[in-house]
Amino acid sequence: MSTLVIVESPTKARTIRNYLPRDYQVEASMGHVRDLPQSASDIPENVKKEKWAKIGVNVEADFEPLYIVPQDKKKVVKALKDALKGADELILATDEDREGESISWHLLQLLKPKVPVKRMVFHEITEDAIQRALSDCRDVDVQLVHAQETRRILDRLVGYTLSPLLWRKISAGLSAGRVQSVAVRLLVTRERQRRAFRKGSYWDLKAELTKDKTPFEARLVSVGNTRVATGADFDESTGQIITGRQVLLLNEEETRSLHDRLSDRPWTVANLEERASTRKPSAPFTTSTLQQEANRKLRLSARETMRTAQNLYEQGYITYMRTDSTNLSQQAIVAARSCVEQMYGKEYLSPQPRQYTTKAKGAQEAHEAIRPAGSSFRTPQATGLSGRELSLYDLIWKRTVATQMAEARQTNVTVQLQVEDATFRAAGKRIDFPGFFRAYVEGSDDPNAAIENQEVILPRLQVGDHPECTELDAIGHETQPPARYSEASLVKMLESEGIGRPSTYASIIGTIIDRGYAQLINNSLIPTFTAFAVTTLLEKHFPDLVDTSFTARMEQTLDDISTGEADWLPYLKEFYLGETGLESQVEEREDQIDGREARAIDLEGLDTKIRISKYGAYIEQETEEGEPRIINIPQDLSPADLDAEKLEVLLTRSEQTRPASRHKRSDLRVLQWSLRSLRAAWRCHGRQSQAETRLAASRCDALTGNV
How far apart, in whole angstroms, are the C-alpha atoms of residue 420 and residue 176? Predict the structure, then answer.
């Protein structure tokens, strides 16, 4: 008897083949074998004339999806059909989540097997796991398939209905998405906050002191029982102290005067507090937290993290990497505790096995956290891995092992020092027992945050002591605008708001960058002018679709459909075909949206017009003679950073252009011919003509009225 086993990838096939009997044939489907059509050329001839065909979902027949086999998958399907001819049994061993269940279902629909079929699921690719899975096969879970299909249809309806509107009103090539557009709005909202931000300035004093030859630092906190202002006391929109705050705002002159008054005066320890605290290790990794931590510590994008984790899983090094669960199996707990005892000693082992519960909204997918595979964990050095794979495995290994380590014990010390009527504060931290700090310390989204296991040692001090002040400096500060989102902080925000699913965040962020909605610079996601234009249009005409709470409720409904608590068809009908459904909204507002207005961006504090073309953003301004000037905005200049000063620099460098009305048709033909020539040169000779192409294109569009 021969058995055909189908998995998704060649790597997974090679690994799983090692743990199966010799008469088992393992083949790869190379991911999905069927999907909704991606382009007009994919649509079958018999339905091409149907109104719904371009969406790929028959909204007139209970939202029946139009599935096709992509051209690049036809050979794969034929090979699988040929392999099935000689098999007595078919085992579908795709991933254990909704996506994997859907792939198995599509394989069944295409292969139409006449032999017995089993569905095999496993959380890791080890010999024990595969053998257990072989003896505990099941049928394809149609409810999981239905949940994935509903989500896919809904995403298609949103994307394929709104995107063409964006092409017509703003620029070709743009896209909208159920989660993508909300994520872009988050970036734009933060950039608006940065633009509205007003700097506040404040001063304080920093003292360098010493006691028993041990130096330490103290900061001014109050003068005459009035607290000195810090950055947290400022209103970001005005740059002024928040109304009602009873604080002392020192300027440079006042601070230097205070410095002179306190110099050479005696310092006295007025109060000393010690507070013991403990810290528990963080939960093991989920998809979301792995993406966040890999971005913080390894500077990997969400895409790179998931690609690397996929490789580690398929090679049998880690458990399945798409999971919302923080649960660890008994096997994993035993393996982690064994590592702790062997590598750090019994004193570093937590007294009792530590288990975690999942707190994420709508937690789903796999039933265990991401951890090293197997009943015993290979150390990073013993894996033979290198590069990113080694770095990511090391991160996962340390985080998992740390979960079974003892709590860290530390003492926080706060010292108040008095010099005349001024109060200074010194803060120290003493690690009494490092516990899990020995293995792992979680990163922070705040680049200025201190590492949690870093000690700050103060000398032995007692109330009444008189430490010596060796240096006293007046320090000026300026408040900083809200930090832009990194990939890590955006993933964290999306998950906390219940928007989308962590398994899709990598592709969503990748799409945002690929479509020109954001640039990734120095690990910050910086929205473009195009993102501003698209977000403004959606906020004005389709506010629900970019509202975080509305999107989160939609996500919850999709989860309810997966558990049978909600009916998928009435929901889709109401969302798309209802009286206020998406289809009618787009039809109704098509004529209400003025394309020229949609391509314009209003930035507070600038009276010039900023517009969008398919070649990027540009400034449109009239000269004193009434002629328009068109100035391309550099790609690396973000909306938040375009102020009056930078605008003046751009205008100074620009050349005047004549108004369209003064050009003859022959002039326009020459300009258009030049543009085509420049485009051809760009295609033939690479990027050297890119700047010229963009400049000519934007001017041509402006003159011909196509902008």
Answer: 63
**The two structure tokens encoding residue 517:** 């909605």
* 228 closest CA partner among 471, 415, 477: 477
- Domains, the chain: 3-34+69-140 (3.40.50.140), 149-197+485-556+583-593 (1.10.460.10), 201-280+408-478 (2.70.20.10), 287-402 (1.10.290.10), 602-704 (no CATH)
The pLDDT assigned to 666 comes to 42
Cβ–Cβ under 8 Å, residues 57 and 65: yes
Q: Which of 175, 281, 17 is nearest to 531 (CA)?
A: 175
pTM of the predicted model, to two decimals? 0.86
CB–CB of 474/259 below 8 Å? Answer: yes
Can you tell me the distance from the alpha carbon of 294 to that of 304, in angstroms, rounded to the nearest whole number? 9
Q: What gap in Å lies between CA 644 and CA 486, rounded to an integer?
A: 27
Which range has the worst mean pLDDT, 31-40, 311-320, 652-661? 652-661
Is the Cβ–Cβ distance between 99 and 145 less than 8 Å? no
Provide the mean pLDDT of the chain.
88
CA distance 528 to 534: 10
CA distance 678 to 704: 18
Query: Hey, which residues does 205 pair with through a beta bridge?
Result: 474
Sign of torsion over alpha carbons 537, 481, 182, 159? positive
CA 511/CA 492 separation, integer angstroms: 18
Tens digit of pLDDT for each residue in 464-474? 999 999 999 99
Tell me, what amino acid is at 216?
F
| Residue among 31, 55, 32 at smallest CA distance from 43 | 55
What 3-state DSSP class applies to 693? helix
* Listed residue (207, 243, 247) closest to 230, CA to CA: 247
Q: In sequence order, which residues have a C-beta less than 8 Å from that of residue 688 and are 6 or more positions away?
A: 682
CB atoms under 10 Å from CB of 8, counted, come to: 22
How far is CA 683 from each of CA 483, 516, 679, 688, rounded to the nearest angstrom? 38, 20, 6, 10
- Tokens 């002040």, residue located: 469
List pLDDT tens digits, range 71-127.
999 999 999 999 999 999 999 999 988 899 999 999 999 999 999 999 999 999 999
User: For the segment 579-618, what is each residue's pLDDT rounded down to a tens digit?
Assistant: 999 999 999 999 999 999 999 998 877 878 899 887 888 9
Active site residues: 320
What is the separation, in whole angstroms, between the first and last Cα of the chain? Answer: 67
User: What are the beta bridge partners of residue 65?
Assistant: 57
Q: Quick: pLDDT tens for 301-335.
A: 999 999 999 999 999 999 999 999 999 999 999 99
- Cα separation, 371 vs 585, in Å, equals 46
